[in-house]
Write a structure and sequence with these properties.
Blueprint lengths: L46 E4 L9 E4 L17 H26 L14 H9 L6 E3 L5 H6 L4 H8 L34 H14 L6 E6 L6 H13 L3 E7 L2 E2 L2 E2 L12 H5 L3 E5 L3 H16 L5 E6 L17 H8 L3 H11 L5 H24 L51
Parallel strand pairs: 3-4, 4-5, 5-9, 8-9
Antiparallel strand pairs: 1-2, 6-7
Bound molecules: thiamine diphosphate and magnesium ion.
Length: about 425
């Protein structure tokens, strides 16, 4: 863990940096100071406060330097030019698929709502790109890009939203609760915020008991990180040194609650200190930073050294879901982050470096459009489920799927036949 230096609270810490310590100061050996690696090339400092008028709608005002120039991307330590182009393509596919979903919703073809990851494509796609085939993913609602990178075709996600018979859940879920534990190693999202964290920790534990350390990536929002199960799951992973990679997606809003009204720490990565694990901050609109931090966390996970908490700072560029116009978000905040659009930033980065020519770029965009059109048509053409199939695949009956070890025979100790023979030292089950 990299821990050193003192932390400015960024909210008005005016202590002189070189002042002599007061006479009653503690000996320095009693002082523990920490630092959190921060990959960002800019550190926006905004405060958002509630300024509601009596019985008016909820509204906020923002203070901070909203005219700051947009920094360049931080070149990746690990990615080759071609890999950067691949991530850019995934991000385009992610955004254009969500635009197609919005249109399908407006055409009345979607059953239920639609959730968007607008402005967060770099976080979803570049983090999932750091996973290997054998690694696991537990996406949340805004991580549709992660699902694409992990191998779900856009038609699966579209059919899921339209509750079509051909969807991965055969039309039984009309949102994003799709997974694939056999091939792609994706745990279906769990709506209860935070619950994926102990589940993914459990996946890592299962692999450990079968003789393998794996990386398992999941996400939690700035709102969801306050839940108790987040603490329980991450603490368990920390104690057991499980390969959990937790990205805290700090997109500044949880429904209509701004981050400033959600927690008091300056950076959510500081939470890592309380778990005794590394914490790192990245600009969530910089795909290179997201990739590098996730790659390093995955490598640590595969070495069996335990979990990492990555805070990705960015902005939810739409409302909570399609029903929410986000009228409560101060317009200048949207403007600020629109200039930091993750796709435009990566596109400029690739063009400036000549890793992609303007013609290649246009060809790539056209190709993504063609792919999506074919995927959309296939999704729309899928029938609605036959009512007779309603009871099927709801309950696990007649051994519909067997629970079998994935990586090897679990290493467990033989049970003691006569419980009276248990020694006190064997009373607790240790998992390593
Ligand atoms: C334990 C729990 N509490 C409340 C909810 C309802 N809920 C769903 S999404 C959401 C807001 C989440 O905000 P955040 O975690 O910041 O994620 P974001 O939507 O910004 O990606 C809430 C309160 C829930 N699903 N689970
Ligand atoms: Mg949020």
């Amino acid at each position: 863990m990299a821990r050193k230096n003192s932390k400015s609270n960024g909210k008005g810490d005016t202590r002189p940096k070189s002042a002599a310590p007061p006479a009653d100061a503690q000996p320095t050996s009693d002082l523990r100071t920490y630092s959190i690696p921060d990959y960002r090339l800019e550190k926006p400092e905004f405060t958002i406060s509630q300024v509601c008028k009596d019985d008016g709608p909820v509204c906020y005002e923002i203070r901070g330097d909203l005219d700051a120039p947009v920094p360049p991307l931080r070149p990746s330590k690990y990615l080759q030019p071609q890999q950067c182009v691949e991530i850019y393509r995934w991000m385009l596919l992610n955004r254009k698929m969500e635009q197609a979903l919005e249109n399908l919703y407006k055409q009345g073809k979607v059953v239920g709502g639609v959730y968007f990851g607008l402005g967060q494509e770099g976080c979803s796609c570049a983090s999932a790109y750091a996973l290997r085939q054998e690694d696991w993913l537990g996406p949340m609602i805004r991580n549709q890009g992660s699902l694409l990178v992990k191998g779900f075709p856009p038609r699966d996600i579209m059919m899921q939203y339209m509750a079509k018979a051909g969807s991965p859940t055969f039309g039984k879920d009309a949102s994003s609760h799709l997974g694939d534990i056999e091939e792609r190693h994706v745990c279906a999202p769990i709506s209860t915020l935070g619950d994926l964290i102990p589940v993914l920790a459990g996946v890592c534990l299962g692999a450990r008991l079968q003789g393998r350390n794996i990386a398992a990536l999941t996400y939690i929002g700035d709102g969801g990180q306050s839940t108790g199960v987040t603490y329980e799951g991450l603490n368990f992973a920390a104690v057991q040194k499980l390969g959990l990679v937790l990205i805290v997606e700090n997109n500044l809003w949880g429904y209509s609650t701004p981050a400033d009204m959600q927690f008091c720490v300056k950076d959510l990565a500081e939470r890592a200190l309380a778990y005794g694990i590394p914490g790192v901050i990245v600009d969530g609109t910089d795909a290179c930073q997201v990739y590098d931090a996730t790659h390093e966390a995955c490598e640590r996970a595969r070495r069996g050294e335990g979990p990492t908490l990555i805070e990705a700072k960015m902005m939810r560029m739409k409302g909570h879901a399609i029903h929410d116009a986000a009228a409560y978000v101060p317009k200048p905040l949207f403007e600020y982050w629109r200039k930091r659009d993750p796709i435009a930033r990566l596109e400029n980065f690739l063009l400036e470096r000549k890793w992609l020519s303007p013609e290649q770029n246009q060809g790539l965009i056209d190709e993504v459009d063609r792919q999506l059109e074919a995927e959309r048509e296939a999704a729309v053409a899928s029938p609605m489920p036959d009512p007779a199939t309603t009871p099927q695949n709801v309950y696990c009956e007649n051994g519909c799927h067997t629970m079998k070890p994935k990586y090897g025979v679990p290493r467990v100790r033989e049970a003691v036949p006569d419980s009276t023979q248990l020694k006190t030292s064997e009373a607790a089950v240790h998992l390593r």
